[in-house]
Design brief:
213 residues; mainly alpha; 7 helices; elongated
Length: 213
């Protein structure tokens, strides 16, 4: 068994173990393990969100200078690239932040492994609150997950109205279409993850607002 399979197995067994504590209800097991995993990743996720927003603000600050360089060297790509590199170095802005890339490489495998574990457990089925079968799609959970995904995207999107509308529209459509065909157990995981994402973005924005006061 490879490392990936072992991680998924540990998460799957953890869901089943917490489900047994909750009278064998798999829905509660999914929620508990999702909360624990997201809490474990929260410090890293907050740092990455702060770094991404700082990078966004820095790019917005130097955007007029970048536009001026493009106009000046519109027919000379080599001088444009060189002047752009110098500008970014002078302003301390990186096109590809290393910290963000490394942090993403840490987070995504955990989230994907948890998703795989939730998918396997959801296939077993069973009732959860109003949901008759966790193995089948549930309209209310799909709507809830879509709403939370839109909120999380709204909190984390750039201030440009055009970008915000496009991102929110794509997020809502993709989420709604995906969860309309997925097991309700996956919808629970998706909803809770989106809720954490929204809370994470709100915390970063609140702290940023305090810092500017």
């Amino acid at each position: 068994m490879g490392v990936w399979e072992q991680v998924v197995e540990v998460l799957r067994e953890s869901i089943l173990a917490y489900a047994q504590v909750c009278n064998g209800n798999l829905g509660y097991g999914i929620l508990v393990v999702t909360v624990l995993a997201r809490l474990a990743l929260l410090p890293l996720a907050l740092r990455l969100t702060k770094a991404a927003q700082a990078q966004q603000r820095a790019m917005q600050r130097i955007q007029p200078l970048l536009d001026a360089l493009r106009r000046r060297h519109k027919d000379n790509p080599r001088p444009l690239a060189e002047e752009t590199r110098r500008l970014l170095a002078r302003e301390g802005v990186s096109i590809l932040p290393v910290a963000g890339c490394v942090g993403g490489l840490v987070q995504w495998p955990v989230c994907l492994a948890l998703y795989a574990a939730v998918r396997d457990v959801s296939a077993v089925g069973g009732r959860f609150l109003w949901v008759r079968d966790l193995a089948r799609p549930d309209l209310f959970i799909a709507v809830l997950a879509t709403a939370l995904t839109v909120v999380a995207s709204a909190v984390g999107t750039p201030p440009s109205p055009t970008n915000r509308i496009v991102i929110l529209f794509v997020a809502s459509v993709v989420t709604a279409l995906a969860l309309s065909k997925m097991a309700a157990g996956i919808g629970l995981y998706w909803s809770l993850s989106s809720l954490f994402g929204a809370a994470q973005g709100w915390l970063v924005q609140r702290n940023a607002g305090r810092a500017t006061v």
